[in-house]
């Protein structure tokens, strides 16, 4: 909440409480009552300020925190999203994402579905995940880990992906070209597949294939989250006042996104939501053209704002820590993934 809005709330509370207090004191004609009424007003204003600020302050997470809360949705975020995304006009309609799916895993009974965005040729990354944090069969009784991949750059890559699918049956293969421009379609196919096939799921976690997930810590963390509420948790990091880049790898033209700043959104490597929230976002996507390539911006920014869903966000250094980006740009990621798992299991 900005300072101007806070001042308006405080002034309104002061006016209402002051009017009530002084009317009561005037009727009773007791000076002591007037003093007491003023003290009550001051205390009440302090409580309003503290409560208002705490509701809108990112959480500094610690292990002894019993519950976390979402920051109330702020309607001013809608002013950072172009009208073409917010409107429900027919020309802005989004696709049915299920036809993008060429091959898919079997149906699941899992409570938690983890979708992993992975490039088609990242064979070692996927194997490292299977051998590390996704290797514990006890954990996997209530978990479903699904790798999202598209069409590779060569027929040989697609052939190897086909063999991998037959061996592991944990790939969701799309008929789109595997590229940065199609990341949003890739992520949305995962959400659509989960809704149709994992009917008992309670949570959806979206991660990249360079992300390490501590499953034990994650499952403990789920108990702290709000019940029966829509939210998206930025489990790794929240991007606030994110710049819209006009040049470089993540360039977006002004015709595509007219504003210079995005609404708050979750950094791509890791974000979590209840299944009911994922269903709301999937519904909103049917009237929203997926022409923004960054899936984290599109899902946890644009669709979230369109659906008026709040965020759970943490201070810059205060995230829970069970979801860690290992960074694809650094060498030997598969080895680092397995090493991270060994460190965790030895604790």
TrEMBL record:
Q: Where in the cell is it found?
A: Golgi apparatus membrane
Q: InterPro entries of this UniProt entry?
A: Glyco_trans_31 (IPR002659)
User: Is Membrane one of the keywords?
Assistant: yes
Give the bilayer topology: Single-pass type II membrane protein
| GO biological process per UniProt | protein O-linked glycosylation
Q: Per the UniProt record, which EC number(s) apply here?
A: 2.4.1.-
- Write the record's keywords in alphabetical order, separated by commas: Glycosyltransferase, Golgi apparatus, Membrane, Signal-anchor, Transferase, Transmembrane, Transmembrane helix
Q: Where would you say this protein principally sits, based on its record?
A: Golgi
Q: Which major enzyme category is it?
A: transferase
Any one GO MF annotation of this record: N-acetyl-beta-D-glucosaminide beta-(1,3)-galactosyltransferase activity
A UniProt-annotated Pfam family: Galactosyl_T
Instruction: Identify the domain of life.
Output: Eukaryota
Q: Provide the transmembrane region boundaries.
A: 9-29
Q: Does the keyword Cell division apply?
A: no
**One GO CC annotation:** Golgi membrane
**What protein family is recorded?**
Belongs to the glycosyltransferase 31 family.
Q: What is this protein called?
A: Hexosyltransferase
